Structures are given as structure tokens and as C-alpha cells.
Amino acid sequence: MDTILNFNTIKEYNAFNDQETLHPLISVVNLDKAAPRKFQKFRYAFYTIFFKKVKCGDLRYGLSNYDYEEGTLIFLAPGQVIGQNKDEFYQPQGTALVFHPDLIAGTSLGKHIHDYHFFSYAVNEALHLSEQEKKIILDCFSKIEYELQHPIDKHSKQLIVSNLELFLNYCIRFYDRQFITRDNSNKGILERFERVLNHYFLSDKPQNIGLPSVAWCAEELNLSANYFGDLIKKETGVSAQEYVHSKVIEVAKLRMTDTNKSISEIAYDLGFKYPQHFTRFFKQRIGVAPNEYRAAYNAGKS
Q: What is the pLDDT of residues 17-42, one digit of tens each?
């Protein structure tokens, strides 16, 4: 059976990496100085960010291997598991920035930490940095390290958290850039998303499992729900949920041109549990009820 090494505190993780603990709730860990170790699975009870400076394949998320390019950031939320169990040793490399949720509790960053969706991205949706971006990231790390080495005073926590927030905000900007620079790849995902929805509504899935959820669509495209949602928002200007809803309306309008089916039958075929839910959904988006839309369409034909 696979074993998982759990790190519940920053101190435990520092000790594992032969690193001094300068602050109980945050650390910048130089992994190059850690001892060689066996491949295994790890779980962290705190936010973990890996900065990989060299190409290596020592991390594994879920069932997908990923070879990290030079200058890559990987983000893990508390409780996530990473790694693989293998009877081989490797030398960890790069830098890890780790911070406990207690560090940001009650701060502005703590209130908005869930807005940083990349903590829920899969590892193969990592952030790949340009040379200039790497310099900025390393500068942020350096500022945090400076504060950790500085004698604690009344400014310490605010400066540490402020620099951490600055780092995370730069990561949002760099992810936005990555979404743009990988535009061709993104368009391919958008086309596949459209095909997934088309096939969905041509199958019996709506009657069996209801309307397609964003999480289901993301899984079909082998993406995490948050990464997929952010990508669709950047590419189309609307949320993935809104995109799905627009597709439901598009299919509904097309099916209402067939007068052999009642509005209730169409509602069930689309995945609505109750026809009145479909009526309310349709009217909210189109401004008229389905039967009114059908009547106007038929009147226009005559």
C-alpha cells in the first residue's frame, strides 16, 4: 500500500530539508541543500509553492507525470498530495515557499486567498516563467527571506504578508500572460469544449445525470476545474458556467422548432429535473417563456 509522508508544521518540513526554522508559519526552503531522498508521496498541511530552476521529473500529481522546465512554479493548497512512491533516490532541487494558513488569518490576504485559483490547479497546469518573470519571483523570495532573517519587530508580519501577497499577485499576472501566449492551445481546448457539449446533448447523459457541470466538462478535457474555468473566462470573456448555460439555450431554441415535442419533454431531454425549472431558466436569459418563444417562432414562419 502507498504510504504518504505528512507535514503538519513548517518546522517539520524545514527539519526534513535540513533547514533552520526562522519563523513557525513561513519558510523559504533551499531544496538544493537538502539530502538526497527516496521518491515518495507527500501531503502538506500548509500552502506550498515549488520553484523549479532545472528540468527534473521528481514530482507526480494524481496519475500524471510532469517534467518541469527551467523556471516553473507549482502551487499546492493545504491537504494536497504530491509525489510518487518508488524505490529510487533523487536530489531535490529548486526552492520551496511554504506558509501556514495561520500566518494570513485575519489579514486581507487571508480573506482573499481563495481568489488565487492556481492553488487548485493540477500540477501539469504549472506556471512557466520567462527570464524577466523569474527575476521578479526570485526578488519576491529574497524580500521574504530578508524579513525572516531580520529580528522580529512590529513591522515583521505586515511586511512578510505584504511581500507574499505581492508575489501571488505577480503570479496572477504571469498566468494571464501564459493564457495569452498559449492562445493556440487554448483555442484547441475551446473547440474540444464545444465538441464535448455537442456530444453531451446528443447522448442520454442529460436524462441520466442532468445538466453538464463545469467540473464534469473539465474532467472530460483532463483539466482541473479552476484552471479550466479561468482559461474559458480569459478566452471568451464569460465564465465556463455561463458558456454552458448559453449552450443549453442554443440547444433548447433548436429543439423548440420541433413541434412534435412538448416543452416538458424538451426540458427533460436537456437535463432539467422539473419543466418549471427550465421555464424559469429560459425566461431569465431570453426574456420570454419557452411556449411564448415557440409561438413567436411559429408565427414568424407562417
A: 999 999 999 999 999 999 999 888 99
- Whole-angstrom Cα distance, residue 212 to residue 201? 9
Of 115, 133, 55, nearest to 90 by C-alpha is: 55
Find, among 278, 238, 285, the residue nearest to 255 by Cα. Answer: 278
The helix, strand and coil proportions of the chain, stated in percent and rounded to the nearest 5, come to 55, 15, 30
Q: Which pLDDT tens digit goes with each residue over 106-154?
A: 999 999 999 999 998 887 788 999 889 999 999 999 999 999 998 888 8
* φ and ψ at residue 50, rounded to 5 degrees: -100, 130
C-alpha grid cell for residue 247? 449552450
For residue 70, CA distances in Å to 55, 83, 189 come to 5, 19, 25
Contact 99, 157 (CB under 8 A): no
| CA atoms 15, 21, 26, 31: torsion sign | negative
Beta bridge pairs of residue 103: none
pTM, to two decimals: 0.71
Q: Which residue has the cell 521529473?
A: 57
Q: How far apart are CA 250 and CA 221, in angstroms?
A: 22
Q: Would you call 135 helix, strand, or coil by DSSP?
A: helix
Spatial distance between the Cα atoms of 270 and 126, rounded to a whole number of angstroms: 35
Nearest-angstrom CA–CA distance, 227 and 220: 13
Query: Who's near 270: CB < 8 A, 6+ residues apart?
Result: 201, 206, 211, 248, 251, 252, 255, 278
- Find, among 53, 64, 184, 49, the residue nearest to 129 by Cα: 53
Altogether, the residues listed in the chain come to a count of 302
